[in-house]
Write a structure and sequence with these properties.
The complex is a heterodimer of chains A (about 260) and B (about 375). With about 260 residues, chain A is an alpha/beta fold. Chain A contains eight helices and eight strands. Chain A has an eight-stranded mixed beta sheet, with helices on both faces. Chain B is of the alpha/beta class. Chain B has helices spanning about 10-20, 35-45, 55-70, 80-95, 125-130, 145-160, 170-175, 240-255, 255-260, 280-290, 330-335, 355-365; strands spanning about 5-10, 25, 50-55, 75-80, 100-110, 115-120, 135-140, 165-170, 175-180, 220-225, 260-265, 270-275, 295-300, 300-305, 320-325, 340-345. Classes of the chains: A alpha/beta (about 260), B alpha/beta (about 375). Chains A and B meet through strand 2, helix 2 and helix 4 of A and helix 3, helix 4 and strand 10 of B. Bound molecules: thiamine diphosphate, iron/sulfur cluster (SF4) and magnesium ion.
Chain lengths: ~260, ~375
């Protein structure tokens, strides 16, 4: 099979805006499951509500498009009831970290065997561009018209602290690395979070001097710093610009997990 | 051989679920329902079932729905505050036609209210609490035996009609201890499988589509959005939405007769008590204390969908007296279906109607 065969042909094209990063992320995820040799009959995609959460609707497996923020709780039920099924969740920064924040940390703590791919576009895309828990300080959204004054969640750090077995962050620019990270997530027993920084030209870029799709891609490319390099700079006492963000694998470990097939 | 036990109502509820083949329980502790979860936690793992304590009631009902899509008979148990939290996902279960059983051991509300005392204040919430139009099934036990029987029956109805079924108990019946006869086996209707080649949301004449269990190659998409017969979102098609909602309501309402479950006493009576749940016990006492009088009693074991035809079992009725541990939630429904005067007999505070209170209502209505 090819990753293309995992799509529901009769559901395309997607509802995504031109230049949206979500399509890239779905391609990478399907590439990873396909290369790993998973059967679509044994794989369940689950999601909450948001542009990112529409992804399972385009995939031919059994798929559960649930309520806003609750995808991980639904997925926990599926995985614990039938551990032999593979469970992959698509979610967004609002879905996972705002309304679903409690389910997020508890799914990490339980270390339920699933792979969670979060399209973090720093914004509520589907509802037209309101501030989210990852909206950068100062960013303009429809609910922060004078610039966001709130702090920001580091989703990956949160997952590491809460007990997930595997946590990685990449961007929609780093297609190869992202695909490999998802592959590692699928292979790791226990909870895996792949945070993907993604462009939303419509609801975020437009208001934040990233008007062209290529502006955000360029931003992701130039502001991502590999974890190892970041650690080296810090160890050497060298300065790291404040607007850089780390990418790479933050943790891969083998803590006791739930819902792992026997 | 059936076996006889002396048991608490909540434990009997859990035993009824186990007898009905419940294989998955997710819940969050809350008085006065916690014993249901505790019993499931003790028993399910020994039967290759799954028990999980979730982070809240929103997650509990979500996990139950997820498990149900893998084919498991799944249940949760809660009380007022937790029940309120479940409302959004209960609407999701209705829209996606997911079988699941929700036990509500009612306590006094609003808010945290009376955690340790009984009430029936959630009877309209279970019927209408989530947004949008829909119908559900609700059963109401009046004894420990019925905690067992009606929980098992809730599974049967939920599996058959693909709609959430509520066991609307209360603290009094939940914490009461009585004799319970546990039969050797309990029959539960099986979820009808989706015929291969049929679209997942194409319903037969009964309005109920076959169930495409996850992991069996159906490749089904399940969404809470308004969807077409393929299960695909079609949220902006007005007539399609109307048709879907009408089917969801109709599949339950058109089966009112099939689902109806009530007990009639003294059908020739002019004065008739209508009860469900704990207040039935006070009516029993009154009838017991006044053996010479012809006092009618209609006791509902299934409250929703409301069996309005049951009122016709009392052709000579001149008054319907409705004792409820709320301000008349089901009395309001009865009024919609009859010209006979309906007199609510509300009791708040957590304790049962004293039989003398019912006697007084009876005299006043003469
Ligand atoms: C309970 C509830 N509250 C609010 C909404 C409205 N809503 C839909 S999507 C969304 C935000 C989605 O943001 P995110 O998860 O970041 O996804 P994105 O669209 O950016 O991919 C909100 C608030 C809802 N559907 N349900
Ligand atoms: S609003 Fe943003 S996230 Fe949603 S489809 Fe458009 S570009 Fe993508
Ligand atoms: Mg977002």
């Amino acid at each position: 099979m090819s990753f293309r065969d995992w799509y529901r042909a009769d559901r395309l094209p997607t509802i995504y805006c031109a230049g949206c990063g979500n399509g890239t992320v779905i391609n990478c995820a399907l590439h990873a499951v396909d290369t790993l040799g998973w059967r679509w009959e044994d794989t369940i995609f689950v999601s909450g509500i948001g542009c990112s959460s529409r992804a399972p609707g385009y995939i031919r497996t059994d798929s559960l498009h649930t309520t806003h923020g609750r995808a991980l709780a639904f997925a926990t039920g599926i995985k614990l009831a039938r551990p032999e099924l593979h469970v992959v969740v698509f979610t967004g920064d609002g879905d996972l970290a705002a309304i679903g924040g409690n389910h997020f940390i508890h799914a990490c703590r339980r270390n339920v065997d699933m792979t969670v791919i979060c399209m973090n576009n720093w914004i509520y895309g589907m509802t037209g561009g309101q501030g989210s828990p990852t909206t950068p300080r100062g960013a303009i959204t429809t609910t922060t018209p004078y610039g966001s004054g709130e702090g920001v969640f580091d989703l990956s750090a949160l997952a590491v602290a809460a007990g997930a077995n595997h946590v990685a962050r990449w961007t929609s620019y780093h297609v190869k690395e992202l695909t490999n990270a998802i592959d590692a997530g699928l292979r790791t027993p226990g909870f895996s979070l792949i945070e993907v920084l993604t462009q939303c030209p419509t609801a975020y870029g437009r208001r934040n001097k990233l008007r062209e799709v290529s502006d955000t891609i360029e931003y992701l490319k130039t502001h991502a710093i590999l974890l190892q390099r970041y650690n080296r700079l810090v160890a050497e006492g060298k300065p790291v610009p404040e607007d850089m963000f780390t990418v790479g694998e933050f943790v891969r470990r083998n803590r006791p997990a739930m819902g792992v097939p026997p | 051989m059936s076996r006889v036990e002396f048991m608490q109502g909540n434990t009997a509820c859990a035993e009824g679920a186990l007898a009905a083949g419940c294989g998955f329980f997710a819940g969050y502790p809350i008085t006065p329902s916690t014993e249901v979860a505790e019993h499931m936690a003790a028993k399910l793992p020994k039967r290759k079932g799954v028990f999980v304590q979730m982070e809240d009631e929103i997650a509990s009902i979500a996990a139950v729905i997820g498990a149900s899509w893998t084919g498991a008979r799944a249940m949760t148990a809660t009380s007022g505050p937790g029940f309120s939290l479940m409302m959004e996902n209960l609407g999701y279960a209705v829209m996606t036609e997911t079988p699941c059983v929700v036990v509500n051991i009612q306590r006094g509300g609003p808010s945290t209210g009376q955690p340790t005392l009984g009430a029936q204040g959630d009877m309209l919430q279970c019927r209408f609490g989530s947004h949008g139009d829909y119908s559900i099934i609700a059963l109401s036990p009046s004894s420990v035996q019925e905690m067992f029987e009606l929980t098992a029956k809730a599974f049967s109805l939920s599996e058959r009609y693909r709609v959430p079924a509520f066991l609307m108990g209360d603290e009094i019946i939940g914490h009461m201890r009585e004799r319970l006869t546990i039969p050797d086996s309990v029959e539960v209707a099986a979820r009808r499988r989706l015929e291969p080649g049929t679209l997942p949301y194409t319903a037969g004449e009964d309005g109920i589509p076959g169930f495409p269990t996850f992991g069996q190659g159906y490749g089904v998409h399940v969404t809470g959005l308004t969807h077409d017969e393929r299960g695909y979102p079609a949220a902006t098609n007005p007539r399609l939405h109307e048709k879907l909602v009408m089917r969801l309501v109709h599949k339950v309402e058109s089966a009112r007769k099939e689902m109806a479950d009530y007990v009639v006493t003294n059908p020739g009576a002019e004065q008739v008590f209508i009860s469900y749940g704990a207040p039935a016990r006070s009516v029993f006492q009154l009838l017991h204390d006044r053996p010479g009088e012809e006092i009618g009693h209609l006791r509902l074991r299934v409250v929703w969908p409301f069996p309005e035809f049951a009122l016709g079992e009392f052709p000579d009725a001149k008054t319907f007296l409705v004792p409820e541990m709320n301000l008349g939630q089901v009395a309001r429904e009865i009024q919609r279906h009859t010209d006979v005067p309906v007199i609510p007999v509300p009791r708040l505070g957590g304790d049962l109607h004293p039989p003398a209170m019912l006697a007084k209502a009876l005299e006043a209505s003469r």
